[in-house]
Amino acid sequence: MKYFLLIFIFLLSACSIKNYEHTAAKIVIIKSPKLKFSDLGYIRHTNDAIELELFFAGHVYKKITINHLICVDNGCMSKSSFNEEYLSQYYPSSLLQNIILGKAIYEGKNILEQNDGFMQEIKNLHVDIKYKVNAKEIYFKDRYNHILIKIKEVH
What we know:
Layout: H1 2-13, E1 22-31, E2 36-45, E3 50-56, E4 59-66, E5 70-72, E6 75-77, H2 79-86, H3 95-101, E7 111-114, E8 117-123, E9 128-133, E10 137-142, E11 147-153
Antiparallel strand pairs: 1-2, 1-11, 2-3, 3-4, 4-5, 5-6, 7-8, 8-9, 9-10, 10-11
């Protein structure tokens, strides 16, 4: 019984309130077969946790919290389970976290450094990804899996 209680507390703490060090308002566009959004979002993060709060018409539409698990409206799940349900099962577990933070994906595979950022193109049997990061925008598109994620500065 005490192990059940410890596991329960551990799972609840995954979605607990954090004090984030960095907060930024962005225009967020997410298009996937199961998730569609295009409006204002707030990205808050520390070194080990991210919160993406998406607004529609001034109200919170969806909140996605990423630490060792990914928590959405209907509960918490592993990063690979989130990818399988909302994105693609063929993505590495850290993909969404790296995109939100503008970091290289697929361990920097095919990275091309540019003046104000970088670009990656990754193509295999399961993905056809174009990923660009610069000072004004993060752009991720997978043509095979019909997924688009854009995060732009608010003007």
